[in-house]
Write a structure and sequence with these properties.
- By secondary structure, the chain is α+β, with helices and mostly antiparallel strands.
- It contains 6 helices and 15 strands.
- The strands form 4 sheets. The chain has a 5-stranded mixed sheet, with helices on one face. The protein has a 4-stranded antiparallel sheet with strand order 1-9-4-5, with no helix packed on it.
- A hairpin with a 2-residue loop joins strand 4 and strand 5.
- The radius of gyration is 24 Å and the shape is globular.
- The mean pLDDT is 89.
Length: 283
């Protein structure tokens, strides 16, 4: 991706633009990755389609989909005197080991009526709707015919789940979400520093050099994902292991073009407008 960014910026051999340091290219590529994820998620793109509206949009972001559960939401009296629970989101400071929450895709909860546990959906709620729903005797958060869908409100790094106060308890909160795309870096990652869940790329000037990680060999251009409790790799030949892009490979050329456009605009290059016209035609 670094090489392709340079080719997008320059007339290949003319080298008409200022040189960018590897750390600067990392910065612009990471910003392009995050921008790509957002516009593919919310539909602010040339096709006007958001996540899961077409197969292309599903494939654009499928590697970012993760699942998470808070199996012990705490009792909460923030919005109601009883029947309220607070569940952590997988974000920095939540203490659950995950720090990568980005956008919610789907939610449900386990409720217990008497001794029967059932997995049900939630009722999305905003703060200005809360009082109305709490006073509504037909609201879905009230138990009817043995089932209910608790109200859900986002609050900081947690979600508030509100039941009817007496007829059921909430045992688990389940969340499917898009994780934040990882930052990329040309800095060589030392053996012993591999982190579970992070995607790494292998680069070497020799086609026969490779890295062995978790029993598998990876040659230049290959990527691998860190697994739990395996932090080391070995090299056969001279290789560089970098933090790579965790979006699907078919998106990389689109991300490179976005990064190049952002860099052209940053240095006030006249080619910015024509380059953006090309970027806007990308699928």
């Amino acid at each position: 991706m670094h090489q392709n960014v340079k080719l997008e910026l320059d007339k290949t051999t003319a080298l008409e633009l200022p040189a960018f340091e590897p750390e600067e290219i990392d910065f612009w590529l990471t910003n392009a990755i995050w921008k790509f994820g957002k516009i593919r998620y919310d539909g602010l793109n040339v096709k006007g389609t958001g996540f899961e509206q077409t197969q292309k949009r599903i494939d654009d972001l499928r590697t970012l989909i993760k699942s998470y559960s808070d199996t012990s939401p705490a009792a909460s009296t923030t919005y109601v005197s009883s029947g309220g629970y607070s569940a952590d989101l997988p974000v920095l400071g939540s203490g659950n080991g995950d720090e990568d929450y980005w956008f919610t895709l789907a939610e449900d909860v386990n409720i217990v009526v008497s001794t029967t546990e059932t997995r049900v959906g939630i009722t999305e709620c905003t703060l200005d709707e809360l009082r109305f729903k709490l006073d509504d005797p037909f609201s879905e958060h009230i138990l009817h015919y043995g089932t209910a869908k608790p109200l859900r409100i986002f609050k900081g790094n947690s979600v508030e789940l509100i039941g009817d106060g007496s007829n059921y308890t909430i045992d688990d909160y389940h969340l499917t979400y898009l994780k934040r795309p990882q930052k990329i870096s040309r800095t060589d990652v030392a053996s012993g520093s591999i982190v579970a869940g992070v995607v790494y790329g292998v680069y070497s000037t020799s086609p026969t050099a490779y890295v062995t990680y978790n029993g598998n060999n990876y040659y230049t251009g290959d990527v691998f994902t860190g697994v739990t409790a395996v932090t080391t790799y070995t090299e056969s030949g001279t290789c560089t292991v970098n933090t790579s892009c965790d979006l699907p490979e078919h998106t990389h050329d689109e991300i490179v073009k976005m990064a190049a456009s952002m860099m052209l605009e940053n240095i006030e290059q006249p080619r910015y407008q024509t380059h953006m016209n090309e970027v806007n035609t990308m699928e």
